[in-house]
Amino acid sequence: MSAGQGLTRGEVQRVGAGWTNAGLGCCLLGVFLLGYAFRGPGPTSPFGLMGLAAIAVGWVLFGYVIWRRTRYVRAHQSKG
Length: 80
What we know:
Blueprint: H1 9-14, H2 17-39, H3 46-76
């Protein structure tokens, strides 16, 4: 963001910061579950499927944060 728009990078990054961390946590949990499933019961086991679901939820959360930040920036742009 340029200074002329009245928004700082920190302001925009604070929008949805908790959801970003939750998305990262979901993706990491999914990777660990998939790793366990591939070493043990197999990728089609409940652990493998839970891992894929956790990764999908993490990406949905990342997309949600991008959408919220876009709305925030558009709502706070200077009209000039």
